């Protein structure tokens, strides 16, 4: 899920830029000289945020969304990431022939021509999932999910019956539409699944993974927000929902997404896993659980810190589960890294969902979660902070990880006869030291830069408008250069 407010923690920032983890009331009542240890690690991006870098509401939102509870952090602060050795299953070449299978010739499920037309752009970074939603008459998950599992050969490899897969995807789609969420709905599921496909296909990551691992990654992306309630983990905890009680306030929504999806697959008519062996099922289930739980945003900084630490080693060995978990997490928060028109539309949908939660919080007498008060939210500033301190660092670490694990595959492919098409998924640095280092293409870099520039221009306009409004309310005549 995308921007989840974690329970009970409301963070402030003192004059030295140190995060304070007490409730707001406690901060107001205590002496200003008392400084509490911040929750975010010293190496985390939020520790670099100066008091005047972003507005207080945005700092509170970033901190409460992307850090864990103090108790949880203390308990696990001494734990070191453990990475098991992985025997890389390297296939010949960067591309696999199955990726080019056409929907019209191989799929057993009938695809409308408008859907086939939109899916021709499926390999693009800024794929227009809104166009797919319209072409599919509101069923993007059904068609995109089927197309992806077919393209990667999962239907044939794991003997998934077409009717069962169609039933499964239709029921998943229904679950995403259950609460009529503006943001966390079937469109978001399809968008994240397509972005995961880009990472698998266009970087060559698929060649580092086994068929079962690809299967699990695609299904995890499809179900990662299944039956999302349109409210955050913090809201569930503060309101004492049945789901929060069931999962003891820990990763409330993420646990529900996984549990409900596997419960659905126990239905014979939706059991796409019925032909997996016992060992395959256990590995598949473990991978999906790991990946979906990793979309809990409260683990964001620890996840990035662990991967950075690993990549700093002389000879890093990346765990498959941690790698695909980071990929799914980055794809889940990737809309600011897409083309502006797509990003802006996602932002407005997300704010609608936040404001609906704020309305519920008002009705229940709960304090507003950050960015949920429709009468007092800084939209442009929040997106600037989100891009600078969350999305950009995440995409950077993810790219570094992919280049680390795919470099050896690229070297092997260069020495083989099946290197055609390599330039379409990678780029080599030219000249200077390290010119032979494998690099993936990063279309998100330009999008992030463009979007941040637009938001900064909007933030300046918003700030000017607020000043003028304040002056008018105080009876001050606005200054003008006109005679």
UniProtKB/TrEMBL annotation:
<dbReference type="InterPro" id="IPR023174">
    <property type="entry name" value="PDEase_CS"/>
</dbReference>
<feature type="region of interest" description="Disordered">
    <location>
        <begin position="413"/>
        <end position="437"/>
    </location>
</feature>
<dbReference type="Pfam" id="PF00233">
    <property type="entry name" value="PDEase_I"/>
</dbReference>
<dbReference type="GO" id="GO:0004114">
    <property type="term" value="F:3',5'-cyclic-nucleotide phosphodiesterase activity"/>
</dbReference>
<dbReference type="InterPro" id="IPR002073">
    <property type="entry name" value="PDEase_catalytic_dom"/>
</dbReference>
<dbReference type="GO" id="GO:0046872">
    <property type="term" value="F:metal ion binding"/>
</dbReference>
<keyword id="KW-0378">Hydrolase</keyword>
<dbReference type="InterPro" id="IPR013706">
    <property type="entry name" value="PDE1_N"/>
</dbReference>
<feature type="compositionally biased region" description="Low complexity">
    <location>
        <begin position="416"/>
        <end position="429"/>
    </location>
</feature>
<dbReference type="InterPro" id="IPR003607">
    <property type="entry name" value="HD/PDEase_dom"/>
</dbReference>
<keyword id="KW-0479">Metal-binding</keyword>
<feature type="domain" description="PDEase">
    <location>
        <begin position="104"/>
        <end position="462"/>
    </location>
</feature>
<comment type="similarity">
    <text>Belongs to the cyclic nucleotide phosphodiesterase family.</text>
</comment>
<dbReference type="Pfam" id="PF08499">
    <property type="entry name" value="PDEase_I_N"/>
</dbReference>
<protein>
    <recommendedName>
        <fullName>Phosphodiesterase</fullName>
        <ecNumber>3.1.4.-</ecNumber>
    </recommendedName>
</protein>
<dbReference type="GO" id="GO:0007165">
    <property type="term" value="P:signal transduction"/>
</dbReference>
